[in-house]
Amino acid sequence: MALLFNGSPTRWIKTQQGLKQGDPLSTILFILVTDVLNQILKVAAHNGLVAGIGPHSITGNVTCMQYADDTILLSDSNYKHIQHLKFILYAFEIFPGLKINFDKSALYAIELPQAHLKRYAMMLGCKTATLPTPYLGFPLSAGPLKATDWDFLLEKIDRKLSAWKDS
């Protein structure tokens, strides 16, 4: 493998398996590889193979959001688009050799019948879940949050403050 540095290829790097978590290179390599997924999704969306979600005022809808090793894929509920998304994810696993943990993945729906949600989850090999759900420490919801949706965060802050007071 060679990298492009300022538009010029570097010398060839011998690739091996076994990059460990905590390795200084693992973070940058992960970012490079996940950026490939993001670019593939953008091209697929541009060609009509998948469709993200977003306000009509924004040109090109959002198909992917990433933070560290968390990825959220956003899609409409078109059956063909879900099939294409599945193919993209499997191809993505083959290309860099990363394994997507579908057991830790969940499918959430906004205004989609439960039968469709289950069918799509089975197709993708993941479980279904409901919103709101905590994501990166905050509740993720399809609509306005209720006061009770913030309870887990308030309890967490209260625990931290009481531990701080006790010390």
Protein architecture, described:
This protein has 167 residues and is an alpha+beta fold. It folds into two domains: 4-99, no CATH class; 132-167, no CATH class. 40% of the residues lie in helices and 13% in strands. The chain has helices at residues 24-46, 79-94, 114-124, 151-166, and strands at 4-5, 8-9, 64-67, 70-73, 106-107, 127-128, 133-135, 138-140. The protein has a two-stranded antiparallel ribbon. A two-stranded antiparallel ribbon has the order 3-4. A two-stranded parallel sheet has the order 5-6. β5 (106-107), α3 (114-124) and β6 form a beta-alpha-beta unit. The radius of gyration is 20 Å and the shape is globular.
- What's the SSE pattern? EEHEEHEHEEEH
Secondary-structure class? alpha+beta
Q: How would you sum up the major sheet?
A: 2 strands, antiparallel
The portion of residues assigned to helices is 25-40%
Number of domains: 2
Q: What spatial form do the alpha-carbon principal axes imply?
A: globular
Kindly list the characteristics that best describe this protein.
167 residues; alpha+beta; 2 domains; 8 strands; 40% helix
How is the secondary structure organized here?
Layout lengths: L3 E2 L2 E2 L14 H23 L17 E4 L2 E4 L5 H16 L11 E2 L6 H11 L2 E2 L4 E3 L2 E3 L10 H16 L1
Parallel strand pairs: 5-6
Antiparallel strand pairs: 1-2, 3-4, 7-8
Pfam families: RVT_1
InterPro entries: DNA/RNA_pol_sf (IPR043502), RT_dom (IPR000477)
